[in-house]
């Protein structure tokens, strides 16, 4: 029996506050991201402990490309290091890795690492860890609309046949259930272009802590908060 019955099946996280965490300690921003990568490891473990099937992390947004080049480079370096170091754990912990976003914008090295690890872990089943990289919800929706429009223009799809199910099948998350729980750290109350379509009915938990301070017990507390909610999906 799972330790936490009625856990959310899919948790999505906006990992916010790395920069402020670093600034309050007089450290460079990259140190905040480095500490944030430790939280990623701990939270993935806690999700397995709670019986969560999918964990989607907003690791790099389409807008993050506009940050100073040094910070972008530091984030990509951290991601590469995470992928190399976490690679063995993914096997041991039976974690499948997926990535969503405009992956062709990532450096070739990062893409190569992602491809290799996604292929190698494709059969793992304890947890699916989805990294949203160079990801934007609006961009994803526009791309789905473009693909449907192309089919309609080619005469292979009748516009009247387009419904929510068909639309969702053209998103990058087509094979993934919608998030049940959306967590955002650092107290900000925004969705910031993250999984705009998919979070329609997600329960939202805002945590005041900065992401580098968000660890195992905080994840478990957010799951408990979710379990106290009464999900209505628009009904009474
Ligand atoms: C938001 O903090 C966080 C990010 C832009 C990146 C998240 C990246 C990591 C946690 C590390 C690497 C990821 C993985 C998967 C290993 P912010 O910089 O916007 O913080 P601020 O709002 O306080 O400035």
Q: How would you portray this structure in words?
A:
The structure is a single chain. The mean pLDDT is 95. The protein has one domain (10-136, 180-227): Undecaprenyl pyrophosphate synthetase, CATH 3.40.1180.10. It has 236 residues and is α/β, with parallel strands linked by helices. The protein has helices spanning 18-24, 29-50, 69-92, 108-120, 137-154, 164-169, 216-228; strands at residues 10-14, 54-61, 95-100, 127-135, 181-184, 203-206. Helix 1 (18-24) packs across helix 2 and helix 2 crosses helix 7. A six-stranded parallel beta sheet has the order 3-4-2-1-5-6, sandwiched between helices. The chain contains seven helices and six strands.
How many whole angstroms does the radius of gyration measure? 18 Å
> Which ions and ligands are bound to the chains?
farnesyl diphosphate
Number of helices: 7
* Helicity range: 40-55%
The secondary-structure element order is EHHEHEHEHHEEH
What CATH architecture do you see?
Answer: 3-Layer(aba) Sandwich
Q: Which topology does CATH recognise?
A: Undecaprenyl pyrophosphate synthetase
Overview in brief:
This protein has 236 residues and is of the alpha/beta class.
Can you tag this structure with a few keywords?
236 residues, alpha/beta, 6-stranded parallel β-sheet, 6 strands, single chain, Undecaprenyl pyrophosphate synthetase, binds farnesyl diphosphate, 7 helices, globular
Blueprint (SSEs and pairs):
Layout: E1 10-14, H1 18-24, H2 29-50, E2 54-61, H3 69-92, E3 95-100, H4 108-120, E4 127-135, H5 137-154, H6 164-169, E5 181-184, E6 203-206, H7 216-228
Parallel strand pairs: 1-2, 1-5, 2-4, 3-4, 5-6
Helix pairs in contact: 1-2, 2-3, 2-7, 3-4
The protein binds farnesyl diphosphate.
């Amino acid at each position: 029996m799972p330790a936490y019955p009625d856990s959310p099946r899919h948790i999505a996280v906006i990992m916010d506050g790395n920069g402020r965490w670093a600034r309050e300690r007089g450290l460079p921003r990259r140190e905040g991201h480095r500490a944030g990568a430790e939280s990623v490891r701990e939270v993935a473990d806690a999700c397995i402990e709670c019986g969560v099937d999918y964990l989607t992390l907003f690791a790099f947004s389409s807008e993050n490309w506009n940050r100073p080049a040094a910070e972008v480079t530091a984030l990509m370096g951290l991601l590469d290091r995470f992928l190399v170091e976490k690679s063995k754990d993914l096997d041991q912990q039976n974690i499948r890795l997926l990535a969503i976003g405009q992956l062709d914008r990532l450096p070739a090295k990062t893409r190569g690492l992602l491809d290799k690890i996604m292929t190698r872990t494709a059969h793992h089943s304890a947890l699916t860890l989805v990294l949203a990289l160079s990801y934007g919800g609006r961009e994803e929706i526009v791309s789905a609309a473009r693909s449907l429009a192309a089919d309609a223009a080619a005469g292979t799809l009748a516009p009247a046949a387009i419904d929510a199910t068909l639309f969702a099948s053209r998103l990058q998350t087509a094979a993934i259930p919608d998030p049940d729980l959306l967590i955002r750290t650092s107290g900000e109350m925004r969705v910031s272009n993250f999984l705009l379509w998919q979070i329609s009915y997600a329960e939202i938990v805002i945590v005041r802590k900065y992401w580098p301070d968000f660890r195992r017990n905080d994840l478990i507390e957010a799951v408990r908060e979710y379990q106290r909610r009464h999900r209505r999906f628009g009904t009474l």
